[in-house]
């Protein structure tokens, strides 16, 4: 069984607070894996450590068998590991489509390349990029909104836009931070269908999620964190009846 992500004893302290403490788990290539735990458990920090936005104090992170714990966020993204943020970070003054065309990572849209390549090839690349962006918007269900200003999207639609921006870079592994938080029930069903579609296209998903229905329906395996550490791992059914997990949620 190939592991696409291996987190080995990763730690990070903020002042006097040990936010992530010798955290250790793996994610199977091709899986949808859940990451749960009470508020403040260190889940979002762990995503920042894995994606290069925050440096670990110690520990190792392997992506596709390669060490990434010392690489920049930009280099990690180029390798095919992307994350979303708890609060979407869309560019408000632009349209939905423009938000996708401005994604600099990946094989398209590199400014240096447009300087080096002859004009026709630049235009070809722009056309390919445009087709790709339209395909990605269809995939997340925002095809009709391509020309809308991003600022006018609902909270849930902004999350879909953020997902679309990640997909432009052809990720192998996507880290999703609470994709359904603040999203209405109808859009949650839609988002789950979109996540299944993304998974079916070959992307491994690691999802921080509080909504147990989403976890139960989507995830083959769930990792539980509390106070910076992994306290349990198993199938959603195993996790639901685990005493330590219940204690952690009840503040025990
Ligand atoms: P979770 O996502 O599981 O709710 P976080 O990873 O956001 O938890 O936070 C874990 C702990 O680390 C919290 O106590 C939080 O306040 C703290 N923390 C997170 N980021 C920072 C930071 N940049 N500076 C200081 N403390 C932080
Ligand atoms: Mg969080």
Structural commentary:
- InterPro entries: AAA+_ATPase (IPR003593), ABC_AA/LPS_Transport (IPR051120), ABC_transporter-like_ATP-bd (IPR003439), ABC_transporter-like_CS (IPR017871), BCA_ABC_TP_C (IPR032823), P-loop_NTPase (IPR027417).
- GO terms for molecular function: ATP binding; ATP hydrolysis activity.
- Belongs to the ABC transporter superfamily.
- This protein is of the alpha/beta class and 252 residues long.
- It has two domains: 172 residues, Rossmann fold (3-Layer(aba) Sandwich); 58 residues, no CATH class.
- It is 39% helix and 25% strand.
- The protein has ten helices and ten strands.
- It has a six-stranded mixed sheet with strand order 6-7-8-3-9-10, with helices on both faces. Strands 2-1-4-5 form a four-stranded antiparallel sheet, with helices on one face.
- Helix 7 links the parallel strand 7 and strand 8.
- Helix 5 crosses helix 6.
- The site of magnesium ion has 3 residues, from helix 1.
């Amino acid at each position: 069984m190939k592991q696409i992500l291996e987190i080995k004893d990763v730690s990070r302290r903020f002042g006097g607070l040990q936010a992530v403490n010798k955290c250790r788990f793996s994610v199977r290539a091709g899986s949808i894996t859940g990451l749960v735990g009470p508020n403040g458990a260190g889940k979002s920090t762990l995503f920042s450590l894995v994606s290069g936005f925050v440096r670990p104090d110690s520990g190792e992170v392997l992506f596709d068998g390669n060490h990434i714990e010392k690489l920049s966020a930009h280099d990690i993204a180029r390798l095919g590991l992307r994350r979303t943020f708890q609060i979407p970070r869309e560019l408000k003054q632009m349209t939905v489509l423009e938000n996708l065309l401005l994604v600099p990572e990946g094989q398209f849209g590199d400014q240096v390349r447009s300087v080096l390549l002859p004009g026709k090839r630049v235009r070809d690349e722009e056309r390919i990029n445009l087709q790709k962006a339209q395909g990605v918007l269809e995939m997340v269900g925002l095809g009709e909104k391509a020309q809308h200003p991003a600022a006018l999207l609902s909270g849930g639609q902004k999350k879909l836009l953020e997902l679309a921006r990640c997909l432009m870079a052809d990720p192998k592994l996507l880290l999703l931070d609470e994709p359904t938080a603040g999203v209405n029930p109808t859009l949650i069903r839609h988002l789950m269908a979109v996540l299944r579609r993304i998974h079916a296209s070959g992307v491994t998903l690691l999802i921080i999620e509080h909504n147990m229905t989403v976890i139960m329906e989507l995830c083959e395996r769930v990792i539980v964190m509390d106070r910076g550490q992994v306290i349990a791992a198993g199938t959603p059914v195993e996790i639901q009846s685990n005493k330590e997990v219940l204690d952690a949620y009840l503040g025990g």
